[in-house]
Design a protein that fits this description.
It is a single chain. By secondary structure, this protein is α/β, with parallel strands linked by helices. It has 2 domains: 146 residues, Rossmann fold; 67 residues, DNA polymerase, domain 1, CATH 1.10.150. 42% of the residues lie in helices and 11% in strands. A 6-stranded parallel sheet has the order 3-2-1-4-5-6. Strand 4, helix 8 and strand 5 form a beta-alpha-beta unit. Helix 1 packs across helix 2 and helix 1 packs across helix 4. It is globular, with a radius of gyration of 17 Å. It starts with 6 loop residues before the first strand and ends in a 10-residue tail after the last helix.
């Protein structure tokens, strides 16, 4: 018999917060300031990867090189100063995470964002007080689509892969979760098409859509009997 669902692992960018375009714009600005020409559409399709994957993919520059470190730092400055204050959560983001807790499930942020960015993004989403645990790129050697962040989140939740579900918005969330043995519920609100999200176990428009249909979803089928998370 399949174990009961115990934990829900949340991506944040593009899943709970409407931030994917902002991240792409910050990257393009940072590259441009350092004289590196990149394709904005290419950068946008790489949002969801960690910076260590995105940078060499779009520019051929390694993030841990001196130039890569300078560009990455500048991106962070631009994002924090110019884009972060304008970000908004998706409709139903807080209500969905709250509903997860009400079902006795452990809610864990599993993001490729840095620890500092993740803290700010969870506040924008209005869920910083609802997440039982948080994992970021700081907790993983390799970022999405490698499975390290998902595995770290499972460890924090004290859950096995079959006891968890990932909620994300990019193919990188789905791939990272799959490589960790976890199924993914995907959202369209991050800007990806259904064909890009085809390996998800289910696709919804966004937090509001899943919330409205939660009784028909995987989150309801294996409802946990009690909240087993312990600090």
């Amino acid at each position: 018999m399949q174990p009961s669902l115990k934990a829900v692992l949340f991506d944040v960018d593009g899943t709970l917060v409407d931030s994917n375009d902002a991240h792409a714009a910050a990257w393009v600005r940072a590259f441009t300031e350092y004289g590196v020409a990149v394709g904005p559409a290419h950068v946008r399709r790489c949002i969801g990867m960690g910076g260590d994957k995105l940078m060499p993919e779009v520019s051929g520059i390694e993030e841990d090189s001196p130039r890569g470190q300078a560009i990455s730092k500048r991106r962070g400055e631009l994002f924090t100063r110019e884009f972060l204050p304008k970000l908004r959560s998706f409709k139903g983001a807080r209500e969905l995470v709250d509903a997860i807790g009400e079902r006795g499930l452990i809610a864990v942020a599993a993001s490729s964002a840095s620890k500092e960015d993740l803290k700010a993004l969870l506040k924008v989403a209005g869920v910083d007080d609802l997440m039982d645990e948080k994992t970021s790129s700081d907790d993983a050697e390799d970022s999405k689509p490698d499975p390290d962040i998902i595995r770290a989140a499972l460890k924090r939740a004290k859950a096995s892969p079959v006891e968890a579900i990932m909620i994300g918005d990019t193919p990188y969330d789905i791939e990272a979760a799959r490589r960790a043995g976890v199924g993914t519920i995907a959202f369209r609100c991050g800007g990806w098409k259904d064909e890009d999200l085809r390996d998800a176990i289910a696709i919804y428009d966004g937090p509001w859509d899943l919330l409205e249909r939660i009784s028909e979803s995987r989150l309801h089928e294996r409802r946990a009997s009690a909240h087993s998370f312990q600090t």
